[in-house]
Amino acid sequence: MKTAGLIFWIVIVMGGGVLACGYAVYRAALTPEQANQAIIEKTYIDWSQVEDDPSERLVISWMPLPRFPNGVEGAFGERIIEEIINIDLKPIFMDAQGYERRKPLMLAGGDIPHVIFEGNPAHARSDAHHGVIVPVPRWLIRKHAPVYFKMISDTDPNGWLFANAYGENWGIPTLWIDGGYPNPGVWRVDWLRNVGIERIPQTLEEFHEALRRFTYDDPDGNGRDDTYGMSGNAQAWHITFSEFFGAYGVLPFDWMELEEDGRKRIVWGGITPRAKEALEMLAEWYEEGIIDPEFVTDGMTRNQERSKFINGRVGYISQLGRYLDFEWEMNPNALKPMMAQLNPDAEIAVGSFPVGPYGDSGCRNWGSAANIIVFGTSVAEKPEIVIRALKMMEYFVANGPEVYIRHRHGERGKHWDFIDPTREYAGGIRLLEPYTDQNVWEREVLTIWRPECPLYEELLYSEEEKQHRSKYQPKDKLMVDALGKPDIVPSAPIYLSDLQNMQLTFYTDVICGKVPIEAFEQFTARWLDRGGRILTEEANELLQVRDRLYQEVRGGG
Question: Which residue ranges form the domains of the chain, and what is each CATH number?
Fold first, then answer.
């Protein structure tokens, strides 16, 4: 390698560092003091002195997210980038269970890959605290991947907040484009007509009336009292009655930014007065009988809820109106073709987000900021690996759609083709046999990292998908956590899961009439006392960090 006075040192914490921590300690939630203390004992690299010789072939161990457990070394995507960037990749594939259990054991035992995908900020912060990753300054990323840096900063700069901890940047953000669109619900249009409603409901009042008629006016005409307006999902906090809370301008399980007297502050949406109003409305709807009483047990996978909609038990279902879930021909579980097959007499259509009493409407989604790519302390022996990885990321987003799609999907004519070759990009793309089989695709085409670039990705949308997103998924209806993700605050691993479970239980009990809405203030006090006050203080500190980061990454500082 070419270095000029490369300086680095490794200070082993607690006499054995991560090796001595052990699996249990590594995975344990950090105390507030640990979560907030500065990490002094860390691997330090003087990046100003590191130079990369592109003629040297570098070996890079890479642990991607556990989405493709059937991936194998030497797949198409890996081979092409190895040739272009002059690297030898050693991927570490595992499933979600392995990622959850095996990865901490590897890191605690000192088996630290060069590159690690972390799914959320809490994991990256834990890695930093335990000294298994190295900080990577933003100026280095901007220097070696300027197009990529700008793409993140322009699309969703919260990604930089995800990578920030202890006053330093610990990784490279990635994007999830679909997270930047709100997901509407779906209506049984034939039911609407059967009960005398001629247009898709637009306001909360219209939603309420349609759901009431679905419950009591025999919308399927079978003469039996066997239908409900809608069900729900009391087990998935991130989508629980999201559009109905959105009609009150509330994100009940996220941080929200408010401004009063010219000052900004962060609050937990679920303890605000408007959250109470939305909750009271849902309790009234449940008492009226228009919410399926089994919504409590519909489950995280939503299979039961989908089944109820397809089989005619409910006439409205949340979230499933996005193009990929509703009618995308590459999705075998898309709602519209599945309904046509299983219930051919049904007519369905994507709905709107209900407008509430204050003029609000919208729906929660995660936003476009996704995960964080971090670098293990193993790169200290060869820090050029970080620069080479940055060059790889830059290559995919700075060289046009052909390069981008080749890496993401493979070779045209072998792995994929345009749906309509005469329209090319305007018609969208489809996978070819046998690569429509996920297992085959993972073994032969899979890449260790599939970048998402809004400019190129939207070229791959068919005109039908573009029109669908524009009409039914307008970005101005997207509601996102003010800090990107609720677990970004340092003490989230200690308190947040307990608080979420407590809130879900309370909300469900209120909706089902087991607890009166008047208990909301006691719930709020309990939420604050059980860690919420600490989290709120940390969230407001992060608001200041976020605003400084926004100014830096968008202003060129």
Answer: 8-179+370-411 (3.40.190.10), 186-364+489-555 (3.40.190.10)
